[in-house]
Design goal:
It is built from 4 helices and 3 strands; from the N terminus they run H-H-E-H-H-E-E. The protein is mostly helical.
């Protein structure tokens, strides 16, 4: 019983220490933001100036080498991953996991150029909130 109390006390102390550290870091961040704003004012820049990204250098393509163009990732009868997911969820009538949906649409002949096609399915589900809703972690259902 005594060792259990000691362990719990140690855990509470660790949490308190982490929270204090986090608070100190937030205060320091606010202070540094104010300093940065002052420096930008001195330089004559607006405080909301956006960083300019340098262009990425791409290797020059040799004329002798043919340029490889990957095939389209949606090769099944012109159906997109989103359309096939909608069909699959409609037929099943229940929420399905990303893994189940990926297996189902690949069985229908859908192909993806990604190493992990489930990423394509995941993106299609998460970027179409009108069509799909999340019912559990990694599980989606039709919104209709």
């Amino acid at each position: 019983m005594d060792s259990r109390v000691n362990r719990i006390t140690a855990e509470i102390a660790a949490v308190i220490e982490r929270n204090l550290r986090l608070e100190l870091l937030r205060e320091r961040e606010a202070m540094l933001e104010k300093e940065l704003e002052a420096v930008r004012r001195e330089l004559g820049r607006p405080s909301h100036a956006v960083r300019v990204r340098r262009p990425v250098r791409r290797p020059a393509v040799s004329v002798a080498q043919p340029v490889h163009k990957p095939a389209a990732s949606k090769q099944t009868r012109g159906a997109s991953a989103r359309a096939l997911i909608i069909q699959t969820l409609r037929r099943s009538g229940r929420p399905m996991t990303i893994r189940e949906l990926t297996k189902a649409i690949t069985r229908k002949g859908w192909k993806s150029n990604r190493k992990d096609p489930s990423k394509t399915v995941d993106v299609a589900l998460r970027h179409n909130p009108r069509d799909f809703r999340r019912t559990a972690p990694g599980t989606f259902a039709l919104n209709r």
